[in-house]
Design a protein that fits this description.
The complex is a heterodimer.
Chain A: H1 2-9, E1 13-20, E2 23-28, H2 33-43, E3 47-55, E4 60-68, E5 74-82, E6 89-91, H3 101-111, E7 114-116
Chain B: E1 9-13, E2 25-31, E3 34-41, H1 49-54, H2 58-65, H3 75-88, H4 94-122, H5 126-147, E4 156-157, E5 160-161, H6 170-193, H7 195-201, H8 209-215, H9 219-224, H10 231-234, H11 255-275
Antiparallel strand pairs in B: 1-2, 2-3, 4-5
Helix pairs in contact in B: 2-3, 4-5, 4-11, 5-6, 6-11
Classes of the chains: A alpha/beta, B mainly alpha.
């Protein structure tokens, strides 16, 4: 599996890490994420699972998970970092994978990452008049809601 | 969106509506009897469990994530335990694997019956609702006997399970399963042969294989559209690789097939529990 991924993704790969036979993490540059996702989703027919957004204090990390169910349930996660914490943004993949729309909206409102090119970026879980700039899942927000 | 929907009738449902179990809001864009589009607003019940988990001890999180869903209160702790066990690279005892099988499948049984009952209820076919929920009840009783709770069983723990299933409870479990099997058989026949249900469900809400792929649908929904993925088979957790069972699929992807898949899975669940 690792070799196939290496061949398909070529020089888009910054780093490839095989944690065990079921989990492969591939670090991709932010600007290449769409190309990489397209190869995995369209060419290799990986099943899109979900996106995880993490606040790492210094940067944001996004993990795009894809599963290969008939190849032993291998999960390939595309990992990308967004370093600009003041204005985090990344290209939206909604036009490639329609189902990704909801999680992009969720990450946008909870972590404050802007998905460029999302057709309908509006609140999903939070109320419509939620104050701008208050992103509940950022690490500086405590569980009582205060910063 | 606005422009396209100008000529359609908008039916708002929710956020508080007797039909809904939880507050959520749907705007249905209809043309005649056909729903063409839907806008879904969620989040009325968002409790920020992911944020709370950050502040809890890892051993407490198992029970916190159990509260994500009141109907499927095993799936989330199982996922969490699997994740932590993978991280720690530990293997759980065989008996615990079988117990996880039993709890997981009993839950699938009650959940599928609940789904079927609600489907009947939404269609205005309350007999189906009354029947399925009546036959679901003994499964909740079994849960109470072996775990102490009808819901939120708190059976899972990282590294295994919290309670053993006592030997003296097993005859009752077997008896309940036998009865359930007969009742589900009866329900299956009743549902599949019913002309009203067929008329209401066949060809409605069709998801093609392409839709399934694009929207990342899984589980019975994907299987009803002819995609034979099942995480219990493809990447077995708990003890699903230790027992014999098969993945149920259908072809049409309409609501009728979704019911057929779920009913078929009830029998597989019973098979798995009996072997465990």
């Amino acid at each position: 599996m690792k070799d196939i991924l290496k061949e398909k993704l070529g020089n888009l790969i910054k780093e490839i890490k095989v944690v065990n036979e079921k989990r492969i993490y591939i670090t991709i540059d932010k600007k290449d994420i769409k190309k990489a996702a397209e190869i995995i989703f369209k060419d290799m027919e990986g099943r899109y699972i979900i996106v995880t957004g993490i606040d790492n204090f210094d940067n944001f990390e996004l993990l795009y998970h894809f599963s290969f169910d008939k190849k032993g349930g291998v999960i390939v996660s595309l990992k990308t970092f967004i370093d600009n914490k003041k204005r985090p943004e990344i290209e939206s993949l909604t036009c490639l994978i329609p189902g990704i729309s909801y999680i992009e909206r969720e990450i946008w409102e909870l972590l404050g990452i802007n998905f460029i090119g999302h057709p309908d970026l509006k609140h999903f879980l939070l109320r419509d008049d939620w104050e701008e700039g208050n992103y509940p899942l950022r690490k500086e927000v405590k569980t009582d809601g205060k910063k | 969106m606005e422009k396209n929907n100008r000529k359609k009738v908008v039916v708002p449902i929710g956020p508080y509506h007797p039909l809904l179990e939880e507050p959520e809001y749907f705007n249905l864009y209809c043309e005649g009897e056909k729903v063409l589009d839907v806008e879904w607003v969620a989040g009325y019940n968002h409790r920020a469990i992911e944020k709370l988990s950050e502040s809890k001890h890892w051993d407490q999180v198992t029970f916190l994530v159990e509260r994500i869903c009141g109907i499927c209160s095993t799936s989330h702790p199982i996922a969490f335990c699997n994740a932590v066990e993978n991280l720690l690279e530990i293997d759980i005892p065989e008996r615990a694997k079988y117990i996880r099988n039993i709890i997981g499948e009993l839950e699938r049984l009650h959940s599928h019956l609940l789904w079927l009952g609600l489907a009947g209820h939404f269609l205005g076919y309350n007999t189906v609702f009354m029947w399925t929920w009546k036959y679901r009840e003994p499964i909740l009783d079994i849960f109470e006997t072996i775990t102490g709770n009808r819901n939120h069983y708190a059976m899972l723990k990282i590294g295994g399970v919290r309670r053993d299933i006592e030997d003296e409870d097993i005859p009752l479990l077997k008896k309940t399963l036998d009865k359930t099997k007969k009742k589900v058989g009866m329900l299956t026949k009743a549902v599949l042969d019913d002309p009203v249900l067929a008329a209401r469900l066949k060809g409605v809400g069709v998801l093609t294989k392409e839709d399934i792929k694009n929207y990342g649908a899984v589980g019975p929904i994907a299987r009803a559209s002819g995609i034979d993925i099942d995480v219990r088979k493809d990447d077995p957790y708990a003890g699903y690789n230790l027992v014999e069972w098969k993945v149920i699929t259908c072809e049409n992807g309409d609501v009728f097939d979704k019911a057929v898949v779920r009913l078929g899975e009830c029998f597989e669940s019973i098979k798995i529990i009996e072997q465990s």
